[in-house]
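In the design runs reported in the main text, the only information available to the sequence generator was the tokenized backbone. The following block is the verbatim input for one such run; it is reproduced so that readers can re-run the procedure and compare outputs position by position.
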């Protein structure tokens, strides 16, 4: 990468020299280049190249903030050496998701005397190690940790508690019922809570949401500005979060400006939570809001809450109508330029004037969407997935045409049926979910690239993609799609048929996405009219910045019709890091893995396939060729014996040289799947293994 200046070969002029001497660049340019190199490489390798780099690699701009998150090559020895060399220079240290490092690695953080921000989410850490580390960090103001079974707050020293008393920002992931370190943090201004407590122990015993003995101390919320809680499924998580909320209901902090609770399923409102919401309506003005659907549905809460300069709203899965959205939240369509992120996922009536007599499949009211687009003109993140947003046949009022006005969009999630060009598809496609998709009555021959009679360049979706030059994250998900592998439950054996409006969405629409040249993340799920997958090849050629790709249930369910196109696409995806495939009857054989080996940057692979097959030798060869891969998850139709043997072979062959390697090969429909899932590191489980819409899932910049 870098090399010291070298003399040119005799008889060869400088212009004819094939090498480029980077050392002739200015310090400013070199520092910018070096900022893209992992800190461990800078300090332990690059700075030893020459004197100039030795100085530049220790520049404060490079050592002030150290990011070990997703640096899968870092090991305990590198952490030890890094802290020895530059520990005193580090002010921010992010080790989030370094699950493979032993807890003893945390002890070396004591050398970072000037540390202000520390992220240890997903790291192995005991109460004693935490106490020892925090006791020396007198300047710490921001902390992220996990609270695992066995955590004991009584083991925290007085010096550790003194450090915690000065912490202003705390992110805490709970795997056991506990207050964690929250009672020690008496100056909290931002509190982020992630509840990942399971309802059952490994032995099958029901767990209780009651806190452990000795945890009678209550949180201190008087200075709180941001309260965020995200709950995984399960009643225990709901019980524990109510204990955290009980203190808030007694006295609402005066400076509270962001209140967010993300809870799946039903999370009933209680007297205490009602008192809390009433107090908030009287005493605070919010900038960000997210509440469980049961707290909003049928209540007049939104009519009474006051907002200042809101930047984030989430009404995911609420029965909020478009009329209520415009009148109660957006002040009758007044200026809301401050709003940058809006999550209306599963909000099935949000684009209709009322919901009382409306069917979910009825056409939307384009005037409501137009009011939203006009008043929220600076939206950067918009999620409209998990609903039937059907446009009428009126020209100029299509959902895609209205969204094209949002020129600042960075991420967008839409249901498949919403991008159908209604005016161009007057004939109804077949209603049978397993029937061969048709293109305006013409017969289709498999293996031949096929579009409808309509030219793809004239479709409303093609125009939308061409009007969003800065889009980085796109999700097109069928409104009735559900993953075969949900959280904490057995695998789903059957899936619902796609919406009838979605039946015509296929290769032409996928090809339209290739216009978004700066796209970094793409999710496509339940596109029934994929015939060849030819649009995928266009994306592979044009979207050279693509890092994350998730494909699920494309085309007919009984045949992977796009396999040839997918393999052609993968040959061009040099920047791809994460690949998730979910498709029944997927065959992960030698040809597939040979194509996948072209993805030289690939780090994580997840395949979910009911009745799918794999070729063990091909998997082993792929892992040997792709040295960056650290996560391999395959949930297929193979026997338990085949899966176990392959998993053991992979771990035995590659674990030593890849300390972060995480391998799970397991039958998708096996009864013990949920037990296997619980051992997957949360970083992988949350980011790739489990399918979900991630657009506007959380407020932007929620954590540093």
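Verbatim output:
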């Amino acid at each position: 990468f870098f090399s010291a200046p070298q003399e040119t070969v005799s008889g060869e002029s400088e212009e004819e020299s094939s090498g480029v001497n980077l050392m002739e660049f200015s310090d400013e340019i070199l520092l910018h280049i070096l900022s893209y190199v992992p800190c461990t490489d800078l300090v332990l390798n690059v700075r030893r190249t020459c004197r100039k780099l030795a100085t530049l690699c220790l520049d404060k701009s490079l050592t002030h903030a150290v990011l070990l998150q997703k640096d899968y090559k870092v090991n305990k020895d590198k952490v030890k050496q890094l802290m020895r060399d530059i520990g005193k220079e580090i002010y921010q240290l992010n080790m989030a998701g370094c699950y493979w490092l032993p807890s003893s690695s945390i002890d070396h953080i004591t050398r970072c005397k000037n540390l202000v921000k520390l992220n240890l989410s997903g790291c192995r850490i005991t109460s004693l190690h935490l106490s020892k580390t925090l006791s020396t960090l007198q300047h710490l103001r921001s902390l992220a940790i996990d609270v695992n079974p066995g955590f004991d707050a009584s083991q925290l020293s007085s010096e550790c508690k003194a450090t915690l008393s000065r912490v202003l920002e705390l992110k805490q992931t709970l795997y056991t019922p506990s207050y964690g370190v929250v009672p020690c943090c008496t100056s909290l201004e931002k509190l982020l809570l992630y509840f990942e407590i399971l309802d059952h122990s490994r032995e099958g015993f029901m767990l209780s949401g009651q806190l452990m003995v000795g945890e009678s101390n209550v949180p201190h919320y008087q200075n709180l500005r941001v309260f965020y809680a995200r709950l995984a499924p399960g009643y225990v998580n709901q019980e524990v979060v109510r204990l955290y909320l009980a203190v808030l209901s007694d006295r609402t902090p005066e400076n509270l400006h962001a209140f967010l609770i993300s809870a799946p399923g039903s999370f009933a409102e209680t007297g205490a939570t009602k008192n809390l919401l009433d107090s908030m309506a009287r005493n605070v003005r919010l900038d960000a809001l997210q509440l469980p659907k049961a707290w909003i549905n049928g209540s007049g809460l939104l009519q009474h809450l006051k907002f200042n300069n809101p930047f984030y709203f989430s009404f995911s899965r609420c029965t909020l109508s478009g009329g209520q959205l415009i009148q109660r939240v957006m002040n009758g369509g007044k200026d809301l330029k401050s709003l940058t992120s809006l999550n209306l996922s599963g909000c099935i009536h949000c684009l209709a004037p009322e919901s009382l007599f409306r069917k979910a499949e009825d056409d939307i009211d384009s005037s409501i969407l137009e009011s939203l687009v006009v008043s929220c003109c600076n939206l950067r993140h918009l999620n409209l997935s998990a609903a039937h947003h059907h446009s009428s046949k009126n020209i100029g009022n299509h959902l895609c045409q209205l969204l094209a006005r949002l020129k600042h969009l960075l991420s967008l999630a839409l249901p498949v049926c919403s991008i159908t060009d209604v005016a161009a598809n007057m004939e109804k496609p077949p209603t049978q979910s397993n029937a061969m998709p048709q293109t305006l009555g013409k017969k289709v021959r498999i293996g031949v690239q096929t579009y409808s009679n309509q030219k793809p360049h004239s479709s409303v979706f093609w125009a939308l993609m061409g009007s969003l030059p800065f889009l980085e994250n796109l999700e097109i998900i069928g409104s009735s799609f559900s993953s075969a592998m949900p959280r904490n439950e057995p695998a789903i054996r059957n899936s619902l048929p796609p919406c009838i409006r979605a039946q015509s969405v296929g290769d032409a629409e996928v090809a339209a996405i290739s216009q978004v040249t700066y796209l970094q993340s793409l999710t496509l799920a339940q596109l029934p009219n994929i015939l060849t997958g030819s649009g995928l090849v266009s994306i592979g050629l044009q979207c050279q910045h693509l890092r994350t790709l998730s494909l699920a249930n494309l085309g007919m369910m009984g045949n992977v019709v796009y396999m040839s196109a997918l393999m052609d696409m993968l040959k061009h995806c040099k920047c791809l890091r994460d690949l998730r495939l979910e498709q029944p009857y997927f065959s992960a054989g030698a040809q597939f893995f040979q194509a996948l080996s072209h993805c030289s940057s690939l780090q994580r692979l997840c395949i979910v396939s009911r009745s799918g097959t794999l070729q063990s030798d091909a998997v082993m060869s792929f892992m040997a060729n792709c040295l960056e891969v650290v996560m391999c998850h395959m949930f297929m139709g193979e026997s338990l014996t085949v899966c176990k043997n392959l998993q053991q072979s992979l771990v035995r062959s590659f674990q030593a040289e890849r300390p972060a390697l995480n391998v799970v090969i397991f039958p998708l429909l096996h009864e013990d799947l949920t037990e296997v899932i619980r051992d997957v590191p949360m970083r992988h489980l949350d980011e790739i293994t489990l399918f979900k819409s991630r657009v506007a899932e959380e407020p932007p910049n929620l954590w540093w």
